[in-house]
Amino acid sequence: MRRLEDAEETILIEPAKNAPPEFQLESRIGLFYPTALDEDKDRIRTGTIFYDPYTTFWIKCGGETLPFPPDVVLAHEMGHAYGLSDPPTDQDYLTGQCIDTFENPYRKEKGLPERPCYGCERVKPPSPKPEKPKAPRPKR
Ligand SMILES: [Zn+2]
Known about the structure:
- The protein has 140 residues and is an alpha+beta fold.
- 21% of the residues lie in helices and 20% in strands.
- The structure holds zinc ion.
């Protein structure tokens, strides 16, 4: 994290609603959009993080349903600004994995379940557990 603060690059953080439509943020959870090449080769790239600061998303990952609160989304996207990838799709990023290096340590610190994999799908929030029907009051 210290390296991000010291970097010359500027990372903007914007609400998802400001993202251009081609980023399709209604179907994704967050995005780091790099806007410049890594000129000084520190792996940190100038760009914009788009995320929704008001919505907790839910993902299904290896049979588990996990919460994906806004601060975790931000931590994940900061990992991309730091030069980390979501393998195997992000071929243009460099070494290191975003979930292992940024997201899961943050989840652990917050007491949230860790995310086991990259092949996750966005799902609806789990519905609250149905209450047990109340026992009928004994008749007098
Ligand atoms: Zn990612």
